[in-house]
């Protein structure tokens, strides 16, 4: 895990994308509109945690990398998933439909600031403001993978 004062490297954005990228916190701050989210995570071990996060929307950053789906076709978009991994190995999965404005429209952030403090040293953080607990909160993001979710095999008779 990184420590305050130790610069965490950039994260990779890869998978079924036309333009995979490597991004730093500074690039996220400068390249996209910054959104704000006031959150309260009800942590099982330490009680409610209140924070204010700022950063670009996950969907806007991934959309800029050109996901390999037909944006005009909702069913094509709805089969894509994203996995977000942190430096400590913690990871989570989101569906594209969850963050897509035509479906769930969740304002999931790639935080560049927390409580007014820049996250350049700690790395970008995934924030799902609608979550009651912080289990999908990922600190020090190292990788975001975007790809299709394969349909399960049909049972044979």
TrEMBL record:
One Pfam family of this chain: Oxidored_molyb
InterPro entries according to UniProt: OxRdtase_Mopterin-bd_dom, OxRdtase_Mopterin-bd_sf
Domain Oxidoreductase molybdopterin-binding: 13-147
Protein origin, superkingdom: Bacteria
Membrane-spanning intervals of the chain: none
Protein name, as recorded: Molybdopterin-dependent oxidoreductase
Organism: Streptomyces beijiangensis
Lineage: Bacteria, Bacillati, Actinomycetota, Actinomycetes, Kitasatosporales
């Amino acid at each position: 895990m990184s420590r305050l004062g130790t610069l965490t490297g950039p994260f990779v954005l890869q998978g079924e994308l036309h333009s995979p990228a490597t991004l730093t916190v500074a690039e996220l701050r400068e390249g996209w509109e910054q959104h704000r989210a006031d959150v309260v995570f009800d942590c099982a071990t330490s009680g409610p945690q209140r924070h204010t996060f700022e950063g670009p929307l996950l969907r806007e950053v991934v959309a800029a990398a050109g996901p390999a789906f037909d944006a005009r076709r909702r069913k094509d978009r709805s089969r894509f998933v994203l996995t977000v991994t942190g430096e400590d190995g913690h990871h989570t999965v989101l569906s594209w439909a969850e963050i897509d404005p035509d479906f769930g429209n969740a304002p999931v952030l790639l935080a560049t600031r927390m409580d007014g403090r820049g996250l350049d040293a700690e790395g970008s953080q995934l924030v799902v403001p609608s979550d009651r607990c912080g289990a999908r909160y990922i600190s020090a993001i190292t990788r975001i993978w975007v790809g299709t979710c394969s349909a399960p095999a049909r049972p044979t008779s």
